[in-house]
Amino acid sequence: MHRRLRATAETFPIAGAFTISRGAKTTAEVVICEIESSGQIGRGECVPYARYGESVPGVLAAIEEMRGIVEDNIGREDLARIMPAGAARNAIDCALWDLEAKLSGVPTWQVINAAAPQKLVTAYTLSLGEPEAMQRQAAEHAGRALLKVKVGTADDAARIRAVRAGAPDSAIILDANEGWTPENLAYHFAICAEARIALVEQPLPAGNDSALSDHARPIPVCADESVHRTEDVAKLVDRYDAINIKLDKAGGLTEALALREAARELGLKIMVGCMVGTSLGMAPAVLLAQGADFVDLDGPLLLARDRMPGLHYEGSSVYPPEATLWG
Prior knowledge:
By secondary structure, this protein is α/β, with parallel strands linked by helices. The protein contains eleven helices and 14 strands. It has helices spanning 56-65, 67-71, 76-82, 87-104, 108-112, 131-140, 157-166, 185-194, 247-250, 253-265, 279-288, and strands at 4-20, 23-37, 40-46, 120-121, 124-126, 146-150, 171-175, 199-201, 221-223, 242-245, 269-272, 294-295, 313-314, 317-318. It comes from Shinella curvata.
């Protein structure tokens, strides 16, 4: 069974701008991997992330380096042993899952989950801005059940209070994107408790998060940049209450499933998140997120246009992917 691999880059405009503490961007740069065999094509999408030293040219080159190995019919588990975790491996891994489903006729959800996938409530992300602008954003989306709010400055109190005032009834996740410090942690935690924040994501830099074990956590704290692979999880249990699993960090659905299991065994809550990408990148994550405590798969909602066919979103609900999209 001979395979053919190809990879291409695509650009999708973001609706407005997407702003976090590290900067703003107006486009989503994605890489698509396609693996063809016996007349079927499996596809996977990844989003190279500069925070992890990735770029579109670098990811394209990394996928190309694997051409001979993938075309020799390597399995997903072997791929995980010889290729480092990251966006490039995610694209190949998800393409292999999709190809297997198309060749076997067995949908991916039947392989990875006990029950048929259901629609999920996803967070909707609000960009970082001045408090007044963030309150307006929150008020505009106050009807959504779950908001994810980008913060991460030296003093986020006014932003946190403004968002809560704008969306008094929504559950709120704060994503500090490593922007707080051990010195202002207790201060920000107190504001979070006052504002009834449901979860705080990665408040401290990944290499400097040991202070979390020394602070009382009045609200649950979730690891993002601090967790990539399964072996990371055991080191985090004294610092975090949850982990954010992203396919691009884990290097694909195969590793993400193992990561989910390891976290559950250690009593950590599960959040399934995403980079800003299209429905093709979100589709396997929707299956991974079945039963998760928090879901943040709004990438396509932040785009000016998505690929077609895409995932079906209805308000804050995201539905499982159709086979014509993935899996």
